Amino acid sequence: MNPARLKKDLVFYGRRLSERGYIAGYDGNLSGRLEGGKILITPSLRPKGLLKAGDLVVTDRNGRKVAGSGRPSSEIAMHLLVYDRRLDIGACCHAHPPYATAFAAIGRKLPTGILPEVSILLGDIPLVEYLPAGVADAWKRFDRHIRGHFAFLLKNHGVLTLGRNMEEAFARMETVEHYARIIYIARNMGRPKPLANKEIARLDEIRRKLFPPKEL
Fold first, then answer.
1. Which end of the chain is more exposed for a tag (fewer CB within 10 A), N or C?
2. How many CA atoms within 13 Å lie on the side-chain side of 143?
3. Could you give the domains of the chain?
4. Residue 135, class by beta-carbon neighbours within 10 Å (0-12 exposed, 13-18 middle, 19+ buried)?
5. Average pLDDT over residues 175-187
6. Order of all β-strands in the sheet with 57-59
7. Positive or negative CA dihedral for 41, 44, 49, 51?
């Protein structure tokens, strides 16, 4: 992706995460793929809603900083693993949206096949075991979840969404949170009713055509 455009996107969507209440304090991180295996990522210990283009950090494919004044996010290993495994992904968005993070905090998976829009944009949303921030080796356990998925609930942590670009990754973050809120309300009213299996299969096929995976 064009570096100047990607910088604008990371700054803009960092602000959107803050405005939407998906992050607080120094929470969250955003990144995008650059040419030559490099990535652009938000810095550690900076409010993502107040970032400027000059705050962003460029690293190589091993996470070593090659440009920028700050330190790359402590969760850079998560981003690097995604880019290494998914050739179709150009951006990652990690945040702590309240409803979805509440599901992650109690270790409860969001159901599949309830809303057609969610089935098309997200598909299944895996619930990933707790992975401590700043411990690079821990993210190796995330490897088995990456293929074929676009959103993840991270136990006791938050949400990670992926996209071909930052707009798409952020749209998936919004969708996960909106869906988690709907499921929470629906379960307090009764029991959410899944779509028929045939319809779920049809929606899955639409998703595969719209967002074909390209994996190593």
1. C
2. 9
3. 3-210 (3.40.225.10)
4. exposed
5. 98
6. 65-67, 57-59, 39-41, 29-33, 91-95, 158-163, 151-154, 127-128
7. negative
- 75 noted as active-site residue: yes
Angle at 179 between CA 174 and CA 183, to 5 degrees: 155
Confidence of residue 23 (pLDDT cuts 50, 70, 90): very high
Q: What are phi and psi of 214, to 5 degrees?
A: -130, 100
Report the candidate in 172, 187, 188 with the shortest Cα–Cα distance to residue 125: 172
Going from the C-alpha of 66 to that of each of 47, 57, 63, 121, 143, the distances in angstroms are 22, 8, 9, 34, 25
Q: How many CA atoms lie less than 13 Å away from 69 in the CB half-sphere?
A: 6
The set of long-range contacts for 71-77, using a CB threshold of 8 Å and a minimum separation of 24, is 71/43, 71/44, 71/45, 72/41, 72/43, 72/44, 73/29, 73/31, 73/41, 73/42, 73/43, 73/44, 74/44, 74/133, 74/134, 75/29, 75/133, 75/134, 76/29, 76/31, 76/41, 77/136, 77/138, 77/139
pTM over 0.90: yes
Q: How far is residue 64's CA from residue 175's CA, in Å, rounded to a whole number?
A: 32
Summarize pLDDT for 132-155 with one digit per residue, the tens. 776 767 777 788 889 889 999 999
Tokens of 49: 């809603």
Considering 75, 167, 174, 177, which one is annotated as catalytic? 75
